[in-house]
Amino acid sequence: MTSTTTINTLVDQLKANPLNWALLAVFLYVLRSYISAPANAAPEPRHPETIVFKDYTPIELQPYTGKQDNGMGRILMAVNGNVYDVSRGRNFYGPDGPYGNFGGRDASRGLAKGSFDLDMLTDVDKPIDKLEDLARDEWEALREWEAHFAGKYLLVGKLVENI
Amino acid sequence: MDLDTLSFILLGSIGAVAYLSLNNSKTPDVHPLILNGQADVSRIRNAGESAIYRCKYTPNGQPLFSCPDRSARTLYDIFQQGGLKNNAQANFLGTRANGGKGAYEWVAKRVNNFGSGLLNIAGLKTKSDEVVGIFAPNSAAAHHYSLVTVPLDQHDTVSTLTHVLNLTGMTVMVVSSRTLPAALAAASEASSRALRHVIVIGTDEDLRADDRRAAEIAGIELRSFEVVEKAGESAPVENVAPAGFLAIVPPNQKITASDRHLSYLSLAHVYERVTIGVLTYVGGSVAFYSGDVSKVLEDAQEAKPTIFTSVPKILHRVQDQIIKQYGDSFLYKKGYGNKQALLRQGRLVNDDMWDLLVFRDIRTKFFGGQVRVLVTSADLTNAKTTEFFRIVLGSQVIQGYGLVEASAAVTATLFNDYSSTGAVGAPLPCNEIKLIDLPELGYRAEDVPNPRGEILVRGHNVFKGYLGDEEATRKVIDADGWLRTGQVGEVLPNGTIRIVDRKENVASRLPQ
C-alpha cells in the first residue's frame, strides 16, 4: 500500500468511527497540556493584619460599634477592664444583633446581670462603672463571661478612665 | 464501535504523551503557597514594635521548642544518645593523622578517662562554677568534655587570654604544643593566679624542656594529656541547645548517621560547636581538618563531607576560584544559564546533562562530591553567592542568621526556598523575633511596604548573660527576656527576615 492509500484509509476510519473522534479529542487535549507551561500563579505574599495593643478610654471605645466603615468596621467590647475585638461575632454584637447595644461600650454590668437593656450601660462621659453593688452570683456570672470572651475573642487592649 | 487501526494509533499516542507528561512534570520542588507564609505572625503587637514572628511549627500561643528529646538535655546526653546508643562502632571523630577512624566507643572511653583525670589531678569539682579552658586548634582531642568549658581560639592574642583568665578564674587549661607558649605568657601576665594546671595534648615526650621551665616559673603544673587520661570516670554538666535546626529539616532530607561534617571553623565560636552537637545527636561523623584553613578544600576532597558549614568570606573565595578556573568555558556558561532558569522556576536539579558535563567535576574537585547541604551564615555582601552554590553544587544552601549571644542561630532559610533576595529565613522553632522602632536611624515598625527595626530575639537559645558583667548583660537583655541583637532587619511579606543595617551596641560578631 502506498502512503496516500494509508492516509486515505485512516481518514475514512476517522470519519466513520465515533470512538475515533473521542480518542482524537483526548489526544489533542493531552498534547496541548504537555506542550503548554503549567499555570503557576501563586498569589503574591502579603503581610497579615496586626492590631496594636493599647489603652482605650470609654470615649475612644465608643466608635467601634460595627456601624463605621459602611457596616464593616471592627467591633470592640470591654469586659471587666479588658477590651476584646468581637468582630467575629458580628451576628451577636453588630448593630443588628441581639446584643448590639454592647458594641463600643463597657458590657460588664449587663453581662453580670444578664440583661441587654440600655440602662445597663454607663454614659461615656462618666467614670467607668465600678460594679460595687453586684451580688456574689452576679460576679460569678461576670467571671464566666470573661472566661468565655478570653477564650473566644482576641484581647486588644485595656479600658482606662477618661482624663 | 470497534477498534480499528486509527484507534490503536491514537491510543498509543495518548499513552506516549501521557507518559512523557508524567515524567517531565515542570512543577517546582515545593508549592509556592508554602513559601508565601514561612513564619507565624502574632495578631497583636505593641505600639512601636512589630508583631512577634515565630516558626510555623511553634506558632504564637504554643511553647517554644526546647530540646529534641526529653532525654537529651546536655551535651553529654546528646553524645550518649546519638552516638553511643545507636551505633557505637560507627566513626565519630577522625583526623588525617589517625586515618579517619575514631568510633563512638573509643571516644567515649577517652572522654571518660580524661574527665576523671581532670577531676583527680586538678581537683576540680563537678557541677560547680569552675571552668576549664580549651586553647588549641580543632582536633579530636579538644572536643567537648564535662564541666563547663571555655573554648579559646587558637589565634587569640595573649591579651585576650589574659582577660579571659582574669574573668573566669580558671584553674585548668588544655592546650596544644603550638599554643602552649602563648598560654604560659598569659598566665604570667594575668592578675588572677588561679591557673594551676596546664594540660598539653599529646604524650610526655612532647613536652619540651624550656616549656617545662617556663611553667615552673609561672607556678603551673604542666602535664601531658596522656597522663591525665589514665585515671577514672567523669560527670557531665553542660548546657547548649543545638537542635532547633534539626526540627526544620524536611523528613526526606533528614540529617542521619550517614552524614559527615568537616570541622574547620573555630571551635571557640558557638556556630561550630552547635554543628558538631547536631551531628553528635544523630550519630553522624565529624572529620577534623589538618590545621590549615587554606587547605580546607583538600581536606574536603579526602573527607567527603555531606554537610558543609562555612562563612561568606570563605565561600566568596571559593566562588572566585571556581569562576576563574571554569568561567570561560562555553559549556559552563550554557549549563549555568540553564540551571539558573530551572532554579528560578523553583526546581533544584543535580543530575541533568549539565551536571554530568560540567558541574560534577567541580563538585568533586572542590568539595569532595558528596555535599548535600551547605550551611552558611548571613551573606550581607553578595546575595548572588547562595544562588551560585545552589547551581554549581546542586545542593541545598541554607543561610542562617544568628549571633553568639543566641547560640549561633536565630533564623534559617527553609529548605527548598531558592530565592536570592538576601533574606535570611524564618525564625527557628526555638525562638521568637520582633522588631522595634529605631527612630534615630529612621526605621519604624510601621514602615511600608515592610516593617523595619532592630531585631529582638527571645527563646531557649538566648544566653543567660555575660560572665561576671551584670551591667553589660542588663543592657543587652531586657526585663521581658528579649535580647537586643544590634542588627536592623526588615520583615518580608512571606515571613522571612532580611538584615538591612547595623546598630553598634552589642559586643558580638557574625562568624566571618
TrEMBL record, chain A:
Q: Which compartment or compartments is the protein found in?
A: Endoplasmic reticulum
**Main location group:** endoplasmic reticulum
Q: Name one GO cellular component term.
A: endoplasmic reticulum
Query: What organism is listed for this UniProt entry?
Result: Jimgerdemannia flammicorona
Q: What is this protein called?
A: Cytochrome b5-like heme/steroid binding domain-containing protein
Mind listing the UniProt keywords for this protein, alphabetically?
Endoplasmic reticulum, Heme, Iron, Metal-binding
Q: What Gene3D superfamilies does this protein's entry cite?
A: Cytochrome b5-like heme/steroid binding domain
Its Gene Ontology molecular function terms? heme binding; metal ion binding
Family note: Belongs to the cytochrome b5 family. MAPR subfamily.
- Coiled coil ranges: none
Say yes or no: keyword Endoplasmic reticulum present.
yes
List membrane-spanning regions: none
- Could you tell me which Pfam families the record lists for this protein? Cyt-b5
From TrEMBL, chain B:
Upper lineage: Eukaryota, Fungi, Fungi incertae sedis, Mucoromycota, Mucoromycotina
Domain named AMP-dependent synthetase/ligase: residues: 250-467
Per the record, its GO cellular-component terms are: endoplasmic reticulum; membrane
Note whether Thylakoid occurs among the keywords: no
List UniProt keywords, sorted A-Z: ATP-binding, Nucleotide-binding
Which InterPro entries does this chain map to? AMP-dep_synth/lig_dom, ANL_N_sf
Spell out the protein name for this chain.
Answer: AMP-dependent synthetase/ligase domain-containing protein
Which GO molecular function annotations are given, in alphabetical order?
Answer: ATP binding; long-chain fatty acid-CoA ligase activity
Q: Which PANTHER family match?
A: AMP-BINDING DOMAIN-CONTAINING PROTEIN-RELATED (PTHR43272:SF33), LONG-CHAIN-FATTY-ACID--COA LIGASE (PTHR43272)
